[in-house]
From TrEMBL:
It holds the Pfam family CARME. PANTHER family: CARNOSINE N-METHYLTRANSFERASE (PTHR12303), PTHR12303:SF13. One of its GO terms (molecular function) is S-adenosylmethionine-dependent methyltransferase activity. The keyword Transmembrane helix applies. The chain crosses the membrane at residues 6-27. Keywords: Membrane, Transmembrane, Transmembrane helix. The keyword Ubl conjugation does not apply. SUPFAM superfamilies: S-adenosyl-L-methionine-dependent methyltransferases. InterPro entries: CARME, SAM-dependent_MTases_sf. This is N2227-domain-containing protein. It comes from Leucocoprinus birnbaumii.
Length: 405
């Protein structure tokens, strides 16, 4: 066959292949409303979203690995700033012990590095990762530090009071289900962070799935749940507040050590971690039937989650879609929308509640005085430093809603 004919056939094959791919995409977009355009980009370009977004596996792994170097750069900047003051002020600083404080900060970084390196080492083993050329910055360092504050919130004795305040209303609703029925019920916990709430729910006997998009969270969670790295209570020691010099009463509280975990958690047959975008999930199906009426979660629990939405309409629609008819949505949280106008819409509580009903939920109303499902305001904190000179109090809203059949 002549070469020019072969060339024409090759070009024709390429055109036909691309046309067929686009046809499949458009058909999928028409009939599968949950099919996101980001997936189209992956199909056409091979671009891996999971390795590029700010909370990706590669970025989180690299950030944990480089925690020490990023933190020491910060200390160096602080030392330079202090070094720029006059001699008289340096003498005063020496008398009150400020240079020693900066040295203590360096020592705390060294102790925290033991944990961050262990998290990265486990991630490298479980995901076959290698150090790479990803650029890391102060935002990545902040995410690592945030995960260490979540260690305190979720898995320390110090965080027990904060957990009690926000977990109790949710767990009380679930505890109304007879224990003999719980194993057959499926619970989804989006934005599960380091997984304590999901673990608590699984301990009640429910089949539980924890969903978390950020690998900064899930790598830390894996570290706590792995029998290779965590074998006993209070095994690990961190200094989670050492980087935050503001609002501190003393250096003793600033550099205090916190031990984790207060209990040893494990994944189990009724606790699964899903490391993915909540909006990409599909409802589970009953093995004995493919009927849509049998699919869906029995409960979806959102704790400090819905206000992280870029598009709150999509988030609540997804919650509705993932629940079975008659399924229950339990929510507790504030409305702190993403900064810098990232959110498509920033709704008031009244607007959110109207939207919930418009999408197809029936919100449990105020009933008896001690009705555990009644909507109410819960004053609480979030990853707080209980010894600091300031407190950020959320007046979070709690509600229970049912998906109308």
């Amino acid at each position: 066959m002549p070469a020019n004919v072969v060339g024409q056939l090759s070009i024709l094959d390429i055109i036909l292949t691309l046309s067929f791919t686009l046809f499949i995409i458009l058909v999928g977009r028409r009939f599968l409303s949950s099919f996101p355009w980001s997936d189209i980009r992956q199909l056409l370009t091979g671009f891996r979203i999971t390795n590029s977004h700010p909370f990706s596996l590669s970025r989180a792994y690299t950030s944990y690995l480089r925690y020490a170097s990023l933190s020491k750069q910060e200390v160096s900047t602080m030392e330079q700033s202090y070094g720029s003051i006059g001699r008289a002020h340096k003498q005063l600083g020496y008398k009150i012990g400020y240079p020693r404080k900066l040295n203590q900060f360096r020592e705390a970084i060294g102790r925290n590095t033991t944990i961050t390196t262990a998290i990265a080492t486990l991630a490298a083993q479980e995901f076959s990762l290698e150090d790479n050329s990803y650029e890391t910055n102060q935002a990545d360092l902040s995410r690592v530090r945030e995960s260490m504050k979540h260690f305190v919130r979720d898995w320390s004795e110090e965080g027990a009071g904060e957990r009690e305040q926000i977990f109790k209303p949710i767990l009380h609703v679930l505890q109304q289900v007879p224990p003999s029925e719980r194993a057959g019920l499926k619970v989804l916990v989006p934005g599960s962070g380091l997984g304590r709430l999901a673990w608590e729910i699984s301990q009640l006997g429910f089949t539980t799935k924890a969903v978390e998009f950020s690998y900064f969270m899930t790598l830390a969670m894996r570290f706590l749940f792995s029998p290779n790295t965590t074998t006993k209570p209070n095994q690990h020691q961190i200094q989670p507040f050492a980087h935050w010099f503001s609002h501190q009463r003393s250096n003793e509280t600033l550099f205090r050590a916190v031990h984790v975990p207060d209990v040893v958690p494990r994944f189990s047959s009724n606790l699964e971690l899903i490391e993915d975008d909540f909006l990409k999930l599909q409802p589970p199906r009953v093995p004995t039937s493919s009927a849509s009426a049998d699919s869906g979660y029995d409960f979806i629990v959102t704790l400090f989650f819905i206000d992280t939405s870029i598009n709150i309409f999509s988030t609540i629609e997804k919650i509705y879609y993932l629940l079975r008819p008659g399924g229950t949505w339990i929510n507790l949280g504030p409305l702190l929308w993403p900064a810098s106008a990232q959110a498509k819409a920033e709704l008031s509580l009244d607007e959110v509640m109207h939207l919930v009903q418009q999408i197809g939920f029936t919100v449990h109303g105020a009933g008896e005085k001690d009705d555990i499902q009644a909507p109410r305001t819960v004053e609480c904190e979030y990853t707080s430093d209980k010894h600091a000179m300031m407190r950020w109090i959320y007046r979070a809203e709690f509600w229970v809603a049912s998906k109308r059949s």
